[in-house]
């Protein structure tokens, strides 16, 4: 699995806007599968979501040799689910990801309009969660945009965490200055 090598915890700019998400990500690496599982991280453009998801992947690879890690983009997940449904091969889909110790989904919002795909994802999450395998979902949208996921999340996952992340103030100010010039 290839993660961005520069996206590590040491290189993450921690501010009050992202401290909760940063601390949760570190705790997840220390207590993989039991702490904040699943972890649902959402925030706007430039907030550091991608950096954190890659930092988790990099740390997991470094500290836990032999760990099976799956990183998938939401649009690719949606395509795999759609293919599995059309070809009646969802079993292959589930087997592929149930063998992961750590599942990282980037840009989960690709599934926002597809309730069937959300339900398939939930079945996968259930299987992984019951085996104490870590699930991390990253999106640009808050959980209320995924009504199936949100309701199920709170009812079923007592160890889960939903965290919003914001861009560090200094980056926001720098962007505003660039846009004015």
CATH class: Alpha Beta
Shape, please? globular
Describe the main β-sheet briefly: 5 strands, parallel
Mean pLDDT across the residues is 85
Q: Fraction of residues in helices?
A: 40-55%
CATH superfamily: P-loop containing nucleotide triphosphate hydrolases
- Given helix and strand content, the structural type is alpha/beta
Percentage of residues in strands: 5-15%
Task: Identify the notable features of this structure and list them briefly.
7 helices; globular; alpha/beta; disordered C terminus; Rossmann fold; single chain; 5 strands; five-stranded parallel sheet; 181 residues
How would you characterize the overall build of this protein?
The structure is a single chain. It contains seven helices and five strands. Helix 5 links the parallel strand 3 and strand 4. The chain has 181 residues and is α/β, with parallel strands linked by helices. It is globular. It has one domain: Rossmann fold, CATH 3.40.50.300.
């Amino acid at each position: 699995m290839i993660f961005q090598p520069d996206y590590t915890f040491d290189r993450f700019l921690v501010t009050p806007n992202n401290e909760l998400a940063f601390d949760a990500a570190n705790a997840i690496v220390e207590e993989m599968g039991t702490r904040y599982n699943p972890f649902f991280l959402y925030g706007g453009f430039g907030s550091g979501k991608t950096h954190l998801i890659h930092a988790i992947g990099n740390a997991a690879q470094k500290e836990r040799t032999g760990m099976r890690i799956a990183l998938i983009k939401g649009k690719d997940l949606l395509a795999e689910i759609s293919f599995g449904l059309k070809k009646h091969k969802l079993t292959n889909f589930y087997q592929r990801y149930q063998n992961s110790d750590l599942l990282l989904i980037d840009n989960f919002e690709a599934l926002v309009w597809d309730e069937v795909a959300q339900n398939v994802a939930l079945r996968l999450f259930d299987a992984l969660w019951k085996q104490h395998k870590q699930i991390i979902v990253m999106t640009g949208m808050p959980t209320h945009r995924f009504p199936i996921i949100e309701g199920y999340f709170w009812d079923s996952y007592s160890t889960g965490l939903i965290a919003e992340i914001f861009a560090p103030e200094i980056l926001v100010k720098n962007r505003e200055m660039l846009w004015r010039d």
